[in-house]
Each structure stands twice: as C-alpha cells, then as structure tokens.
Amino acid sequence: MADTAMSGSGSITGDDPLQTAVWRLRSRGCWTDAAALLAPHPGAAPSLQRASLLVERCLFTGEGWPEAEDALRLAEATAREDDERGGAASERGHLAYAATILGVRDRADEARAALGRAAALLAPTALARPLLDFRRGLIAEHLSDSPQSALAAYRRAHAGATAHGQTLLLSFTWRHLAGLALREGELAEARHGFGESLRIREELGYLVGTAPALAALADAEPEPEATRLRAEAGRLFRLLDGVPTWLAAQLAPSTAA
After folding, report:
1. From CA 255, how far away is CA 234, in angstroms rounded?
2. What pLDDT does residue 11 have?
3. SUPFAM superfamilies, from UniProt (predicted)?
4. DSSP 3-state assignment of 127?
C-alpha cells in the first residue's frame, strides 16, 4: 500500500509550547495523547486539529474510528467561517478515504463529495488548499485509477506547499510524485523524489513516517541498497510496534527472505 497518510495542521516549529508538544507526540505515532492535549481548548481550530490527529490515527493503525467520527462531528459543529468548514469537509473526506482504502467500508462516494465541498469552500490561496489538493490526488490515484489527474493534483499540492512553507506536506507530495514516476519507469526521477521525502522526514524528526519513506526508496534502488533500506524500515517499524500497520505487507517479502 502506498504511503497515503496526511492529516493535521500541528506546528513543526515555532514558539507555541502546545503545538510543539502536539507535534512531538504526533511524530512518534502518539495521536491519542496529542489529541488529548487539545481537548481542553475550545474553538473551531483546536477541534479541527484534534479531529485531524484522530483521522490520521485511523489511517496509520486501522483503529479508533468512533473517536475520529466524534471528533469530526464536533469540528463540523464548531466551524463558522468558510475556511473552517472547508477544513472540516477535507477531514471528512480523508476519513472516508481511509475507511475505503483500508477495506473497512466503501465510502468512496462520500470521500469525493466531501473533498468537493471543501474545494468549494476553500479559497485558492487558503493555507489548507495544498493539503486538499494532495488528498484529491489520493482519490484520483487510489480510488479512481486516474494517474494523470493524480499527477496534476499532486503538482498543485507541491507548488502550494512550497509557497506556504508546508515542509511536512512536501514530504508527501515528493513521495507521491515519485511513486507515479516509478510507475512510468522513470527511475532517476523516482529516486530523487523518494530521497527528498526521506530527507525531509528525517530532518523534521517525523519518526512514524520514516519507515514508509525508507521502504518507498527501496523500491527504486538496486541491490544491495534496496535490502539495506528495507532492513532499516523494518527496524523502525518494529520500534513503533507495527505502525503504520499497512507497511507490514510491503516489508513481508524481505522479512520472509
């Protein structure tokens, strides 16, 4: 399965102690603890961020669906401005996407409709727009099997993330642009994109996303480098108690060998 997770708006750098604590927990796969830090804070922004963390937990672990749904309903109820409503709709679409891609329940139509609502609500220059473009790329690639539409969406997301300085999102856009390049047999382009994704995640300390990045790069590298990368991915995967759960299948061949 592709590395398709991406949620949340927690700060990676900055002077806000709350956001720093949320990021540290999120980066290590402690989404429930990170969400708990936000629970005492009222308002649309904390509610939306809390929902996004719990949605991300679903995609990485395949668990916590009721908690994510409850948090998302709260975020939708507290949203007042178009940007807030658009952000909530984007999370609704991402949760439906996660349920579909993980085989929990087919919610593909709901995912497309929710992301369509988000697109209507979010201005082209909104901070949440690049993430929405990325998620629409996921739908195109993994649910609609439309790589050209996915490529256009990922490129928009990449440009937007660059313009807004959204470094973590860039690690995801690099990853998915590289995945499409690999699909077309463009090995040099794929290695570059996968390498950039891994570099960013290591620099940010995004531990929970590093094993998938290592495994993805391994798919584009020759031996013996591919085996070395998969072994390192497996070590991190075990360190995080088998998260993300969907990576197990990708690592299984090397483990069996």
Report:
1. 8
2. 46
3. TPR-like
4. coil
DSSP state of 68: H
Residue range 91-106: mean pLDDT, rounded: 98
Put simply, whether the predicted model's pTM sits higher than 0.85 gets the answer yes
What six digits make up the tokens of 73?
Answer: 């309903």
SS3 call for 1: coil
pLDDT in tens, 45-87: 999 999 999 999 999 999 999 999 999 999 999 999 999 999 9
CA distance 60 to 32: 12
Distance CA 112, CA 118 (A): 10
3-state secondary structure the chain: CCCCCCCCCCCCCCCCHHHHHHHHHHHCCCHHHHHHHHCCCCCHHHHHHHHHHHHHHHHHHCCCHHHHHHHHHHHHHHCCCHHHHHHHHHHHHHHHHHHHHCCCCCCHHHHHHHHHHHHHHCCCCCCCHHHHHHHHHHHHHHHCCCHHHHHHHHHHHHHHHHHHCCHHHHHHHHHHHHHHHHHCCCHHHHHHHHHHHHHHHHHHCCHHHHHHHHHHHHCCCCCCHHHHHHHHHHHHHHHCCCCCCCHHHHHHHHHHC
pLDDT digits (tens, 9 = 90+) for 128-179: 999 999 999 999 999 999 999 999 999 999 999 999 999 999 999 999 999 9
